Amino acid sequence: xxxxxxxxxxxxxxxxxxxxxxxxxxxxxxxxxxxxxxxxxxxxxxxxxxxxxxxxxxxxxxxxxxxxxxxxxxxxxxxxxxxxxxxxxxxxxxxxxxxxxxxxxxxxxxxxxxxxxxxxxxxxxxxxxxxxxxxxxxxxxxxxxxxxxxxxxxxxxxxxxxxxxxxxxxxxxxxxxxxxxxxxxxxxxxxxxxxxxxxxxxxxxxxxxxxxxxxxxxxxxxxxxxxxxxxxxxxxxxxxxxxxxxxxxxxxxxxxxxxxxxxxxxxxxxxxxxxxxxxxxxxxxxxxxxxxxxxxxxxxxxxxxxxxxxxxxxxxxxxxxxxxxxxxxxxxxxxxxxxxxxxxxxxxxxxxxxxxxxxxxxxx
Length: 364
Hints:
Its main location: other. By secondary structure, this protein is of the alpha+beta class. It contains three helices and 24 strands.
């Protein structure tokens, strides 16, 4: 009987190792199969036959181990190994591969199937299908704008032949490249903050910088809409900002000098306006009176607010300092920084500019 038991154990090993060889052979035969995943065989020991049971220790002797004979082995499992394979370029635009976890879904005979094989092509009806089985690849189709709607359902992936996309102008172009490592480095172009210069009264009021009460740019001046109202003890006059002034007496202005001329024309004998060397509007009263200047442009009204108040005879008041963006014809001594502060340059100052051209130092 024990001889037969040994034969049965050996036969179980032969039979089950034959299954292992079958699995290995299948792995080798599918070495070039698209999307194939190899398998492995795991073995387990068969329950042993007990010839004598174990005994527990007694007061005079120790316990004994059981006597048992193994009856061979079984196949525990055959597992598919889902390790990521190598991706290869096939030259076929419809061939697809999955990097990482997941499966393609294909449909045939009303049933969905999962596969890792991505050898696809388009059939005569425009369906994307599996090349071997003809199963239709499933997915979520984009709408006319190229976006997949939220909640879109799985359906046949289909691209009708002859379908055209409407032409659309290019909105963004990205260009990349590498600099020549052996090229001669060029100098950096550095830009300082914007420079301003003392306003002489001849610049457009819009975009002037006001320093004092306003401390901001005069912006939002609208031609034909923005106004300035001046009133003394006896008279009220309103002047309108325009893109081009027609002359004194039309009630319009484009520059500070235009506004000054209108005030001097309408309030002759009562008020006299001018602009000083610091770019401020100077308002002088020839009599005792109260003057109020207002505007529907908040920044401009704030810049002129220093002219408001009670005047005694031959007294004057000053507005904010006005500055315009520096021009090529402005004198260096009239330049100001971005906050409207004078740079402090005077005649006789020396300006030195240092730098490098092609790595060679220069100084001017």
